[in-house]
Write a structure and sequence with these properties.
The complex is a heterodimer of chains A (276) and B (211). Chain A is mostly helical. Chain A has a domain at 60-207 and 248-272: Up-down Bundle (Ferritin). Helix content of chain A is 49%, strand content 4%. Chain A contains 6 helices and 2 strands; from the N terminus they run H-H-H-H-H-H-E-E. Chain A has helices at residues 9-30, 60-83, 95-118, 129-143, 151-174, 180-204; strands spanning 255-259, 268-272. Chain A is extended. Chain B is mainly alpha-helical and 211 residues long. Chain B has a single domain (48-200), classed as Ferritin. Chain B has helices at residues 2-10, 49-73, 80-104, 114-121, 127-149, 155-177, 184-187; strands at 30-34, 206-210. Chain B starts with a helix and ends with a strand. The chains are: A mainly alpha (276), B mainly alpha (211). Chains A and B meet through helix 3, helix 5 and helix 6 of A and helix 1, strand 1, helix 3, helix 5 and helix 6 of B.
């Protein structure tokens, strides 16, 4: 039991009075007794000076450069799939489709970079390293691991995920772009990615019944759908795959400089990365 | 490959989905840009007066497309599966119209675009024609909404229209994966926008990404 429950009204008032007196005393020891104020947390020894992070403006150009980086993620992934001979068996017939998709992404990257340059920025010509290290590389490692009998199907699943990611990212970036014309440009590319996703969804889960959302009765998990959902709300609505896959979730996403990992052409880039 | 065999049984005569893809063709994307020196200002959240006119046009177009799907569904020419799919798509268009209505409030006209409806209604003459025509309608809606999006100032309207574009592009692509249409039509669209001339933009920036 708490002893405070047994305090009388008089004792309680005494304690309150002592507390106020103590606080007043401590305050007097601070500002009025010549103690130098320090921004540092109290610690033993000398605290080295800190350098504040630079102010970063998340401009339309930064958003577009990030979109370009995602295009290169797709280009690089499709290139690895083709050059690595990962489409085998029945899925080998998808090679032409994958080449087509890669060409589309090359075209998208060129278009987005032209906008970047037009808006005074530097073209971004390499993949987003954070997306590569967090998503693409681990996925490809799992797919190509020895003993994976479903490697080709897994490649298609990865491609489907990347296309959805790109489509949702372009849709998400619309809410962040200040310039209306750029929003239209983003969705001209974004709707192309959505079309890619539909074709891949139909490969993974074909048929009329797979067009809308459905659930695997055995696992209780959502199956791949060509048109995953309709619409969620009026203002600020998002349609499609769950918003967790949107790269541009909010304007608070960290903007980090990083090096393009493309050998001698490595250069500093400013772009968004996925939330940490 | 058990999974892939499902691919060919999912649709009747669905064999050869992937082989019907066109050989890789490089799509040229043209971009023209003219930049103004003015610093951008934060966009408004709510639709401007000019936005409302465009959003109301989008609303009327959505109502027309919804009615086109109803006409196809009621035709008696569709298989049960086709009917289910079109019912889902028609519901989507209804949801978009309702969402636009919610954004516009009392300023929503809530009447369908008769010109759009009558242009396509007469072409719904067979199941195959319906797939082809409704794909074309979806592509037209994508082009129209994208055009409108390029002019909208308010973010609420812009995000809503962007979400509609994504799903309508998916609708169009789904038609392209059906057995009776070319798969290349799933990936490309040459549809033109029906959007009325948008209000002049506040800046002189002009950007086009033409696939």
């Amino acid at each position: 039991m708490n002893d405070f429950n047994n305090l009388t009204r008089r004792e309680l008032l005494k304690i309150s009075g002592l507390s106020i007196a103590g606080i007043t005393f401590l305050a007097a020891c601070g500002a009025q007794s010549g103690v130098v104020e320090s921004p540092n947390v109290a610690s033993a020894g000398t605290v080295p000076p800190t350098t504040a992070l630079g102010q970063v403006v998340i401009s339309d150009t930064v958003l577009l450069r990030t979109a370009a980086s995602l295009e290169y993620n797709a280009i690089d992934t499709y290139t690895q799939v083709l050059e690595g001979g990962l489409l085998t068996g029945d899925y080998a017939s998808l090679k032409d489709a994958v080449k087509r998709f890669r060409d589309d992404h090359i075209s998208h990257a060129a278009a987005i970079n032209a906008l970047v340059v037009g808006y005074g920025g530097k073209a971004h010509e390499c993949a987003n390293t954070r997306v590569s290290s967090l998503y693409v590389d681990p996925a490809l490692k799992l797919i190509t691991a020895d003993g994976n009998a479903d490697a080709a199907r897994d490649v298609v699943t990865l491609a489907h995920a990347l296309e959805n990611l790109a489509a949702q990212t372009y849709q998400g970036v619309v809410a962040l772009l200040a310039e209306p014309k750029l929003r239209g440009s983003a969705m001209r590319v974004g709707q192309d990615e959505a079309r890619h996703a539909v074709v891949l969804a139909q490969v993974l889960n074909p048929g009329y019944l797979a067009i809308g959302p459905s659930t695997d009765e055995a696992t209780g998990k959502a199956k791949v759908a060509s048109v995953p959902s309709t619409i969620r709300s009026a203002a600020g609505a998002s349609v499609g795959v769950p918003p967790s896959s949107i790269i541009f979730k909010s304007p608070n996403i960290a903007v980090t400089p990083y090096m393009c990992a493309s050998g001698t052409n490595a250069k500093r880039q400013d772009h968004f990365t996925a939330p940490r | 490959m058990k999974q892939f065999s499902a691919l060919v049984v999912g649709y009747p005569n669905y064999r050869g989905l992937t082989s019907r893809l066109l050989s890789p063709q490089k799509k040229e994307t043209r971009v023209t840009t003219k930049i103004s020196a003015a610093a951008p200002t934060a966009p408004p959240k709510m639709p401007t007066t000019a936005d409302k006119q465009l959003l109301d046009f989008a609303l009327s177009a959505e109502l027309s497309v919804h009615d086109l799907y109803l006409k196809a569904i009621d035709s008696g020419m569709l298989s049960a599966d086709e009917k289910l799919m079109m019912q889902m798509f028609s519901e989507h268009h209804k949801a978009y119209a309702q969402s636009l209505n919610g954004l516009l409030g009392k300023e929503a006209s809530n009447t369908r675009n008769e010109a759009l409806f009558s242009t396509y209604a007469g072409q719904l003459t067979s199941a195959q024609a319906m797939s082809r025509v409704l794909q074309s309608v979806e592509n037209t809606m994508v082009a129209t909404h994208t055009d409108i999006l390029s002019s909208l100032q308010g973010l609420d309207g812009a995000t809503l229209v962007a979400s509609i574009i994504t799903v309508e592009a998916r609708h169009a692509a789904v038609f392209g994966t059906l057995p009776n249409l070319s798969l290349s039509s799933a990936l490309s669209s040459a549809a033109s926008s029906l959007a009325p001339n948008a209000a002049p933009a506040a800046t002189t920036t002009e950007t086009t990404v033409a696939p």
